[in-house]
Amino acid sequence: MEGSAIAQFVPLILIFAIMYFLLIRPQQKKIKEHQKMVESLRRGDQVVTQGGLIGKVVKVKDNNELDVELAEGVKVRVVQNTIAQVLSKTEPANADK
């Protein structure tokens, strides 16, 4: 009787394991990569917001905000986590110069 009870749970455990490796783990990896990308944003980076706006980072603020210039003289304040993609990165300033 005990063997059959354990045997009934084996398929559920297998389903959970498959769900973890196919859905949960890749999603966690994607979130970590996005967080790393957002933390590395610098002035001059060209970005795309989740709303589809393309602009250049003018200023990185302390409270999780960015100033993004969409066109000449048109600046918007954007929450860092709403950046979907970085199109071009700026080179870091060289400390030797």
TrEMBL record:
UniProt-listed GO biological process terms: protein transport
Listed GO CC annotations: plasma membrane
Annotated transmembrane regions: 6-24
Presence of keyword Magnesium: no
SMART domains the record matches: YajC
Subunit: Part of the SecDF-YidC-YajC translocase complex. The SecDF-YidC-YajC translocase forms a supercomplex with SecYEG, called the holo-translocon (HTL).
Protein's job: The SecYEG-SecDF-YajC-YidC holo-translocon (HTL) protein secretase/insertase is a supercomplex required for protein secretion, insertion of proteins into membranes, and assembly of membrane protein complexes. While the SecYEG complex is essential for assembly of a number of proteins and complexes, the SecDF-YajC-YidC subcomplex facilitates these functions.
UniProt protein name: Sec translocon accessory complex subunit YajC
